[in-house]
Structures are given as structure tokens and as C-alpha cells.
Write a structure and sequence with these properties.
β3, α3 and β4 form a beta-alpha-beta unit. The protein has a 5-stranded mixed β-sheet with strand order 4-3-7-5-6, covered by helices on one side. A two-stranded antiparallel ribbon has the order 1-2. The protein is built from 4 helices and 7 strands, in the order ααβββαββαββ. The chain is rod-shaped and about 100 Å long. It is α/β, with parallel strands linked by helices and 167 residues long.
Length: 167
């Protein structure tokens, strides 16, 4: 249980902040309400600025999906991955750049240490066949294979039989 405070002469005087130290001045209900209002205002400002700052950071760091660019019924915003397994280690960046020059989306161009025997264009869905035919115009006539278990939506797999098309 709390101890009863013994009152002294300073406690009996009116709260006068100019002559009495603030730590000894009595708090009136008005003083308590003002203090509560300041604490509430500070809490609202800090909380809202923290929330808004977090939203700005999240929006700045998030990677938005590419906007859909549909040309003649072909969605050109589908990401294409170029995989070079020809053993020469020289086709991935070239083919990727050729596709980029044709305004296609190529987020990855990879070179593998092992080789594929045959080159192909692997697609996850039949819906991507029109885009695969457009890719054939850029990289050459490669067979189009529908592979539901493919890691990427469209993979241009370059094997040992791949030859760059004449430019």
C-alpha cells in the first residue's frame, strides 16, 4: 500500500511556476489534461510518421510487375530466360541482347557448365506459343516444346547444335 504523503507549507500554496520549482508544484486537473493532450499528440505524430515512412520504403523497394504490352495478341511482357549450355560460353549474353533489342523482357541470361545436345524453346503454357514463334524469328528456328514443369515461363535453351543466325 502506498504511503500517505505528509503535506508541508509548499504543498498548501497555489501552483506558481515562476516561484516554485516545477517538481514541487501541485498538478491541477487542467495541467494533467494538457499533459495528456501533448502525449497524445506526440504519439499520433510519431506513429503516423513511422507508418508513412515504412510505406514509402516498401514502395521504393518493391519491384512492380512489368506492364502488359500486348501486340497483335502476343503479350510481350512475359519474361524470357536464356540458358546457354552449348559448352562455348558465348551465346547467353548475345542472344539475350538480341531479344532485348526486339523489345522483349529478358531478366536472366545464364551459362551452364554442362551441355544440352539439342537447342529448344521451352514454354510452360500453350498460350506462350505465339511469343515463342516471335522468338524464333530472332534466334533462329528452334523447336518449341511445351514443358509444364519448366522453371521459367519461357526458356530459350541453347545446346551444342546452336548456331547464331546470320545478321
Amino acid at each position: 500500500m502506498a504511503k500517505v504523503k505528509v503535506t508541508d507549507a509548499l504543498d498548501l500554496e497555489k501552483p506558481d511556476y515562476a516561484h516554485v520549482g516545477r517538481h514541487r508544484a501541485r498538478k491541477t486537473p487542467k495541467d494533467r489534461w494538457i499533459e495528456l493532450a501533448w502525449l497524445t499528440l506526440a504519439t499520433v505524430i510519431l506513429s503516423s510518421s513511422g507508418y508513412l515512412g515504412l510505406q514509402v520504403a516498401v514502395n521504393a523497394l518493391s519491384n512492380p510487375m512489368p506492364t502488359q504490352r500486348i501486340v497483335n495478341g502476343v503479350d510481350l511482357s512475359v519474361p524470357i530466360t536464356v540458358i546457354d549450355a552449348s559448352g562455348t560460353r558465348q551465346f547467353a549474353s548475345r542472344v539475350g541482347q538480341m531479344l532485348l533489342d526486339d523489345t522483349l523482357v529478358v531478366p536472366y541470361s545464364r551459362t551452364l557448365d554442362f551441355t544440352f545436345e539439342a537447342s529448344s524453346i521451352d514454354i510452360q503454357k500453350e498460350d506462350y506459343r505465339a511469343l515463342a514463334k516471335r522468338i524464333q524469328k530472332v534466334v533462329g528456328k528452334l523447336p518449341i516444346i511445351v514443358d509444364i514443369k519448366a522453371k521459367y515461363p519461357i526458356e530459350v535453351r541453347l545446346g551444342t547444335d546452336y548456331v547464331l543466325p546470320a545478321e
